[in-house]
Each structure stands twice: as C-alpha cells, then as structure tokens.
Amino acid sequence: MKKSAVIFSSLFVAVSVLLIAILATGFWKRYFITGTEEHTDTRIIIPLEANLHSETGNTGQMRWGERVTTKIPMEDGETAIAVLNREREESPAEEQFVAFINPNAEKRVYIAYISFDETGRAYRRMWEAPTSVTRPETLSIFSLDLVGDRNNCIVVTGMNNRNEHTMTIFRRGFFQRDDQEFNKIAEIQIDGSIIIQETGRSMAYQQGITRGQSFNIAAYGHDSSSNNLLDQIETIYSYSLSSQKYEQTSVSRIPGSQIEQRRLRELLSGAPGVFENFINDLWFYVSPQGTIDPKQYLYFDPAGREIIFYGDEAQQVFHWHNSTPTRTGIYIRSQNISISTLLRFIDIELESMDSIRLRVIEDVRLRITATATWDGTYRRAGAVVQHETEASIKPGVNALYDSLWGRLELKGNGEYSISSGNETKRGRYVFFKVDDHELLELRPDERTETRMIYKTEALGTAALSLSRVRLGTTGIQDLLETPVTLTPVN
Fold first, then answer.
1. 293 and 249 in one domain?
2. Strand 165-172 to 153-159 pairing
3. End residue of a domain, out of 254, 272, 298
4. Residue 170 shares a structural domain with residue 51
5. I want to staple 332 with a disulfide (CB 3.0 to 4.6 A). Which of 167, 346, 384, 482 is the partner?
6. 174-187 per-position pLDDT tens digit
7. How far is Cα 114 from Cα 69, in angstroms, rounded to an integer?
8. pTM for this prediction
C-alpha cells in the first residue's frame, strides 16, 4: 500500500514538473492548441541608406514606430516589413500577405501568403515569391480589383537599387492547388513613374451582376532619343484575357518643358539634399483648367523634416522620414504625426523651374488611384504671385550697391553678383509687387542655397533697406530678421 502511494506521489510530481516546463516554454501553444491564431510581433527594420535622410539609432539601422503582426513566426533571418490582412470570401478566416526581407537571400523584398489550413487546423505559409523591390523603405502593398472580376490582385510598389520605380502584381490562380497560389500578372520597372488608371465601373458591377472594365497601367520613362531630360515615353499596359497577364498595348511620346539643361542636370543629379532644397517652399495646387487653387497647398520643410498638406480647410502634418532620388525628381516616405498607421508615399516630378507634379499613395487606404486628392500639378507660391501680378513686375536695372553681404551688382538682363573678398556669388533677381509692397527675389545659381524674398524700402539718396519675408496664402509674412541696407556706389 505504501509502495503504491510512493509511486503515485512520484508520478504526480513528475507530471507536475513536466506541465510547468511545457507552460513555461510555450510548447503547449504549438502542439496542443490548433485552430487559433498565433501572433508574433516583428519590428520593422529598414537598412540605413547612406544617401537618405533618415532617423537612426545606435545600431546603425532605422526603425519605423509601428509593429508588424504576423499570424505565424517568420523563419530564421527573415524580417517582416509590411502586412496586408483581408478576409476570404469562402471562409471566415483571415488571410495575410507579408512583405519580408532575408539578408541571406536575394537582395529583394519577398511576399508570402499565410492562410488557415483546414486540414491542420492552423495557419501556415502557403506560397511566397520575390518582388522587384530592393529598397524596403520605399515599399507599399495594397489590394485592388484590377481585372474587374472581383478577384482582388496584390499590388507591390517600391523602388530598386537603380532608383527605378517598380510594380509587381499577383493574382490568385483559381485552378491551382487549393487556390493557395498566386500568378504574377505584371512586373514593371522603369526610370519614371507608374500609375494605375482607374475608370468608373457600372452599377451592375457594383451589385455583383457583371464584370467590370479592367484598369490599365501607365508607365512613364525617359525618352532616350531626345536631348531634353524631361521628355517622356508613355507605355500603356492592358490586361489580356487570353494570356491572363498585362501586356504592352501602346507607346507614345510626351514632350516636357524646355528648361536650361545645365541647371536641370544639377537638380536631377541625385546628390543628397539638392532636390530637397529646390522644393523647400510653399506650393499651390493647379486645377485641370490651369487655375491656381489657394485653398489647397503643400509646404515642404526639409530642414524641419515635415510636410504640410492643406486642403478642404484641414491641415495635415507628416514627418518626412526619408527620400530617394529618381530620374525626374524624388520619392518621399512620410508618416502622419497624429495617426502613426497612416503612411504617405509622395512621388514628385519636376515639370518646370516653378512647377512640380505629384502622385501620392496613402498606405492606409490599401489602394492607389490616378486621380487621388493630392495628385496633380503644383506651382511655387512665389511664381504664382509673379504670374498673377505680371503687370507690376519691374524690368531689370543696372545698379551697384555696398552692403553687409559685400558688393551687390544688379544687371539689366536679370542677373546679379555679390562679391566679398575673393568669393563671388551669382544668380538671378526680379522686382515685383504684392499688396502694394515692392519685393526683391534673389535666386542663387549655387544649388546648395535657397532663393530669398525681401521687402524693399527706400531710405533716400537711392539707398534701399531689405527685410526678408515669406509669401503664403495669407500674404506677406515678415521673418523678423535684421534688415540689410544697400548703399549705392557712385
């Protein structure tokens, strides 16, 4: 009897120790519970690029504030950088698309499909494939019915190491094993921009009665046969029912603005900070009719790492995380300072020395449109004022002044020079009026310097006082800097 009690006690203790060990290690989650989601949180780690503006920590890597939740653990060495969750129509279970990088694999971003396995009663990785994105900090992933049959495609956009825009599109293969694999129906890489041309679909499509019209994809690249850097080639890709892929259907040339090519090459050289300094300003939206809309504008502040969007009487402030140079401008990744889950990707192209064209992708909407709220052309605020007050712009003058800057010479052809010691700075100038105030704008030729606007005041004996100001939607704003006196040289 005593012997049986001893054996029972020993077994009880052994079983208790075993259970405690199982609970402590989490072993029970993996093998004793099925049919439930196992979440693992992965921080978004983006490799630091030497030529990018970014936030860095002691590890030499940049970390975005959000966490990516995957339904199953990633494999050794893999780092999840973005997740797209959606419900399957034929099942109440949620499916997940994970963009990830693996330093041991190819230098590109992969996409994995995670779904609920009815047989094993647990989530598992069903499929994976590489994308064209090799710069993780530029990646965006969203779902959209491109074909019009309500079979939403997975669209992955971003940039590669050649600073080209890329778009990789996957579509579920209904006739493959368990419908758990996806076919690549488009892969585009180009040194310009790529947009999806959405069109309106009928009420019958909205009600699930008929198919909808397929969306085309437009890709814009450099016209290698032209000497103008802003001339482009537009290539249209349409979905083919026979091949079930996107195929090239048309090519056309789009002439760009005629800009002095030396200055243009400097702006588009890709050197750090050059294009950022160029867009450091207030920009008004230009309507399709060509008119200026002062109720919608953008303000780029590269020094403060902020971008301000103003429209519909609401202001949105985004933190400027990083930027990547492109052949025609810059690609910016930004994050709303109030809503951390709202990422905004801004593709900026140079149209002229006073206008830029924007295409914006908002990650929170999980979709892209060719006519998004912020898409379109914007004109520099100073250029808008000059354009609308052209009659009040004074012609060039020939004058020579002494100042704290040095000796300032204004030439009749609109050029100026400032000489101080052995250094001479050159640029262009213009006099114009706003609200009965006479202003002087100096635009330095040196690409590292920004343009300046000054309010002028006559001091007698042909001397001038210059007070630095900024032009905005509310008019002239005095920056309260010490005025500079220009004394004429006889």
1. no
2. antiparallel
3. 254
4. yes
5. 346
6. 654 445 689 999 99
7. 12
8. 0.63
